[in-house]
Design a protein that fits this description.
mainly alpha; two-stranded parallel sheet; 5 strands
């Protein structure tokens, strides 16, 4: 999109941009079905190979490279330009900066191929990856009368909630997936697209949970007191070994 179109679009009039009066452009690295450490290594590789060239595109704005595994927003590079919002009357300049940063990122990434990316199988993780076998095993640990979110299951499997969408896809598409009605969207919401193999919809999901003892709030969310914790799920999936037990 040309700068003049971007500057006049809804993108430039967002309440966050206007309220904070700043521009923020972000390059995210996110591969949900592999450990978070993989995303971090990908970002570090981009920084090493292309960081200087990307910085030259926005020489007056230092690029922030974040590569930490302790939260869901850990794998990204961004520029933040204070005083580049509508309150300051600089939408054109903000749009041009965003486009320069985005163009530099895309140009750099086009120079890479799969040989520049780390091998996921060589990435060490304290947990694992969100593959079908792992997600199914964790789901089987959710007992009748309990529910968890897609993000909860992702956190048990990978250490972060970034694979929540992958969990939902696996639950919806895997034949004989264990008790998919016990895994819900954020805050206990039943997805509008929820469907069972026998053709049931969201009401079927709710009925099955209610039959197992789960109550619901007036707004339709599953009651939080029935939510199984990530810690409990992790312990059931990988029970701690006690001294004297055979490994």
């Amino acid at each position: 999109m040309p700068p003049e179109e971007l500057a006049g679009s809804k993108l430039g009039r967002g309440p966050v941009l206007a309220a904070r009066n700043r521009l923020r452009a972000v390059l995210f690295v996110r591969a949900g079905q592999v450990p978070a450490e993989y995303n971090i290594e990908v970002l570090e590789g981009i920084r090493q190979r292309h960081g200087e060239a990307i910085q030259q595109a926005v020489p007056d704005l230092p690029i922030e490279w974040h590569a930490r595994g302790d939260n869901d927003r850990s794998d990204y590079a961004r520029i933040t330009a204070e005083g580049h919002g509508y309150l300051d009357g600089k939408p054109q300049e903000a749009a041009e900066l965003a486009i320069r940063f985005a163009t530099a990122c895309l140009t750099a990434l086009q120079q890479d191929d799969e040989t520049d990316l780390p091998d996921p199988d060589q990435i060490e993780s304290a947990t694992g990856r969100a593959d079908t076998a792992t997600i199914s095993a964790i789901a089987a640990c959710i007992n009748p009368g309990e529910w968890a979110t897609y993000g909860d299951v992702s956190t048990v499997a990978t250490g972060t909630s970034s694979a929540a969408m992958a969990v939902g896809t696996i639950a919806a598409r895997t034949p004989d997936f264990p008790n998919p009605h016990r895994i819900l969207a954020s805050k206990g919401t039943i997805p509008r697209t929820w469907a069972s193999p026998d053709g049931g919809g969201p009401q079927t999901c709710r009925q099955r949970l209610e039959d197992e003892g789960v109550s619901f709030l007036p707004d339709g969310r599953a009651a939080p007191e029935h939510r199984v914790s990530v810690e409990a799920l992790r312990a059931r999936w990988r029970p701690p070994t006690t001294s004297g037990e055979d490994s």
